[in-house]
Design brief:
With 256 residues, this protein is α/β, with parallel strands linked by helices. It has one domain: Alpha/Beta hydrolase fold, catalytic domain (Rossmann fold, 3-Layer(aba) Sandwich), CATH 3.40.50.1820. The chain contains nine helices and ten strands.
């Protein structure tokens, strides 16, 4: 079951509404004593429904979770669609310059502060969640993948596990590397991270940057599942195929 409603994020876009998509497991109404882990996701409009997806193709995540009876709540928030780099700004922890986009003011911290201090408490209050860190996850792709990595590191007291699909590691790579090396992370931190073999050439030196970040993550003791996806590309159809891999990582050996 997927519910949908609108929220506002005043610190980012004032009173302009954007959609929230909330997936509840199939047994949610039939097991009133049961509580569930929560996966928070970026680009919520692309997660469940083709009709809402930016390019007409979603991840179809709800169908997968229903088919395999995964005991997981998913709370996904629509991105900022403003043409003046709205999404890039909200999904970047760092201010950066890129020739194709120009100067982009990084507002990722403001975005994550809203997730942590406003959105998560709302979900925990209204639904039967397991609100503690061991059962709180975050995931996304592209810039949302970068934000998931950032959230796992900078907000490790909130999120214990994350999935970063095709993360935009080309954004401020040196600052990201410093964050990975210096963040305070707990020993039970789990991360799934991948990149498609067909998209490695989309940004200069991406293979080296992916390897560099993966190495730093391993050095920090993070439980890393890392893949180069054969034939993987930078699109929802490709990310949909990775659902079994990242859901398995997020749910692996999880005590519920």
């Amino acid at each position: 079951m997927i519910q949908k409603w609108d929220v506002t994020i005043p610190a980012l876009t004032g009173e302009e509404p954007r959609g929230v998509y909330l997936y509840l497991p199939a047994d949610y109404d039939y097991a009133p004593e049961r509580r569930y882990p929560v996966l928070y996701m970026f680009d919520g409009h692309n997660v469940f429904f083709d009709s809402d997806a930016t390019y007409g193709k979603s991840w179809g995540l709800g169908e997968y979770l229903d088919a395999y009876g995964v005991p997981l709540i998913v709370a996904a928030v629509e991105c900022n669609h403003h043409p003046d780099n709205g999404r890039l700004s909200e999904y970047s922890p760092y201010t950066f310059y890129e020739p194709d986009f120009g100067h982009v003011a990084g507002r990722g911290k403001t975005t994550m502060d809203w997730f942590v201090h406003t959105f998560k408490p709302t979900i925990d209050k209204q639904y039967r969640t397991l609100p503690a860190r061991p059962h709180t996850f975050i995931a996304g792709s592209s810039m949302g993948g970068l934000m998931s990595l950032y959230a796992l590191l900078e907000y490790n007291h909130v999120f214990s596990r994350a999935a970063a699909l095709s993360p935009s590691l080309w954004v401020a790579p040196d600052r990201l590397a410093r964050l990975v090396r210096g963040a305070s992370v707990r020993s039970d931190t789990v991360l799934y991270m991948d990149y498609g073999s067909r998209e490695l050439g989309n940004h200069e030196l991406m293979r080296g940057q992916f390897s560099r970040i993966a190495g730093h993550l391993l050095e920090r003791g993070i439980k890393l599942t890392c893949r180069i996806v054969p034939g993987g590309d930078h699109c929802e159809a490709s990310w949909e195929k990775q659902i079994p891999f990242f859901i398995e990582t997020l749910m692996y050996e999880l005590e519920i």
